[in-house]
What does this fold into?
Amino acid sequence: MELPDRKMRILKAVVRNYLETGEPVGSRTISKLTDLKLSSATIRNEMADLEEMGLITQPHTSAGRIPTDAGYRLYVDDMLSSEKEELQSAKKEMLDMKDLLLKKQDRLENMLQSVAKTLAVSTNYASMISSPTTRSSKIKFIQLSQVDPRNVLAVIVIEGNLIRNKVIPVEEELSAETMLKLNMLLNTNLCGLSVEEITLGLIEGIKRNAGIHTAIVNNVIDAAAEIVRSEEELKIYTSGANNIFKYPELADHQRASEIISDFEEKQALGSIVQETLAGEGQNGIQVYIGNEMPVAGMRDCSVVTATYELGEGMKGTIGIIGPKRMDYDKVVGVLKEIMSQLDAIYKPSGTASLEDKGDGAAASSGQEGGTKGGQVFTIPELRIPQIKRIEIKEL
Amino acid sequence: MELPDRKMRILKAVVRNYLETGEPVGSRTISKLTDLKLSSATIRNEMADLEEMGLITQPHTSAGRIPTDAGYRLYVDDMLSSEKEELQSAKKEMLDMKDLLLKKQDRLENMLQSVAKTLAVSTNYASMISSPTTRSSKIKFIQLSQVDPRNVLAVIVIEGNLIRNKVIPVEEELSAETMLKLNMLLNTNLCGLSVEEITLGLIEGIKRNAGIHTAIVNNVIDAAAEIVRSEEELKIYTSGANNIFKYPELADHQRASEIISDFEEKQALGSIVQETLAGEGQNGIQVYIGNEMPVAGMRDCSVVTATYELGEGMKGTIGIIGPKRMDYDKVVGVLKEIMSQLDAIYKPSGTASLEDKGDGAAASSGQEGGTKGGQVFTIPELRIPQIKRIEIKEL
DNA sequence: ATTAGCACTCCACACCACAGAGTGCTAATC
DNA sequence: GATTAGCACTCTGTGGTGTGGAGTGCTAAT
It folds into this structure.
């Protein structure tokens, strides 16, 4: 949609003013606010036009105007395409973020959670972040070992060094040779295959060769299938849901309850992740406004999403969820900043930025993987914090 | 505190009526409600006494009475000690719970989450449940294996069959003999020890014997330490936080925001778990009312907690959080019911109750650990769903 | 094309009145 | 002495009314 320059400027003024105040904005306000020197009457005429175009609306006859979803959309599109978001304010607020990311977040889970929290605190909106997805991976290594007379431990490593294990109960103790044979059998037959490639025929073949130990083979394959299943499972971390109470238009019982509930059942937010990963927006930033929200029950909100990447095709989604009148400029700035910081942490070149942060104690020999003091805290772990959660079941 | 019978009955009537309606209750209502035939005037006199004792209060001069914290406390104590909670209503509502627990909750995490949800749905209050704590355990088994030329996989099994693994990067590929030697070294020196028992001297000794592979030894020990650390970490699952909006006294912005925030930062709820595990109440049920709440910011709530046990000393806490005027009778009933169901699931004797639930398809041969259809669903797994989360880090 | 002026609309807020619920107190009754 | 009926009083919640202010649309003047 093309808009005459003057109308566009008035629209922007209306949106911006409404973002700040949350109150309908009148012609007089605009007339005083903008640099184009026009009287309120002229503005009124223009605003009448804008209303006719469906970009702004008035809550009641004699009130000022507020943007419609379409109005927000135009505003946001313009902002995103004109590329010159004022990052400076965002950057200043995010300075401590680097510290935060450096604190021994030795687990991905904790790191994501604390990123979410930082985002929520620094924006005053609610935030969500999804765990990075991995492509369906191939089996790399299988190891069975006898833990005790009644149990065999199966360890399965898949590409990208994700590991899962499972304890399998057995009736009788297996001999060392049997274990060795089973290990060879499984490794030669299954390594290099993705779980989808494991056919029933293949399993039958293995079982035949395994002789009496079909139960174990079954269990190993089950465990392998489970790895993939649970890797595909989307984990979503959230923070700052209570921020919605800061915005009266979201804080009434009805709406708040729905939003809180969606935040609790995090899978409701999954659709946002899906949408985001599906349609790649410009700069990786996407904005869903009001009815564009993929989550029903959040139709009074907007969400700004970004895609982050931890290398090796592990992509995740970050989202900031707030009222439709959220400060899009700031949020986009914050998201871009955090994306770049996540990138920096992953990239090996991040070493420099890590070292100039060093607090003397870091000089505990250049030995890779060394411990310092009693703390499990190794520099390389920090630089590439690729940690997966895995689960085991035991009987 | 001993109370004359008549006063006690009036107090109970006030509390019960207020629980239902949420409105201050007047003398006339009581007079009609109770079986003791007294006029409203008499009730008024008694109520004045009760107010003097600090058990009830009136929001303003000419309103009915509502219970104070002390009043609730007396009511709850009486209920808990008189032991005859009407479980029948609870039981009826919980019939489907068994189904829920049976649905392939093959992971503890999922099971806990769904228990929380069921509780929230069936009570209309918010619920929380903590993962069971384990005592610090001994190392049972250690296994190193070469996954690929650059990485060694360390698997550590501790008592109770909790497993953790860690990928350790190495400079050069290790020979099969070296691996074998390291495995023997680690197993002979560390098995049977709890992590606390591993002294620096011991580590030094192992390192000496390990020759050049001190880095690997270090990492294995780190991993072992990490197991214990993360097992100690309290995981709390919540559900139904949005239920608080159903109770106007909690639903105003101020309070709701605080409560929601505490539910989001789940560790705030940790203090409830601590309190509960510390002071063992009668029947394992404990009630914290208003200012007794361990969590600041929930001083307008009450919580009913229970301790559940999954055998082997793995104890966890369940809590139902609602307004002070929550239906204590029902909640206590529901909690008792779920506790007994959790017990039944854990106990081997649970077999019976599982089998009479069988839906025909369960007849896929008595083979232990068998799969049925494409589903990973083994009966023994269900019966003893002792599943731990473990994490690995990779480099 | 822009602006000043004006009549009009609608909301927010304060004010008031009043019905209703409930109390405390006193005097009468069992 | 305990209970009850009766009554005056208090406080809240609600609905009605009035008014000031903000903002609009329209018309006429610039």
Observations:
- The first strand of chain B starts at residue 56 and ends at 57.
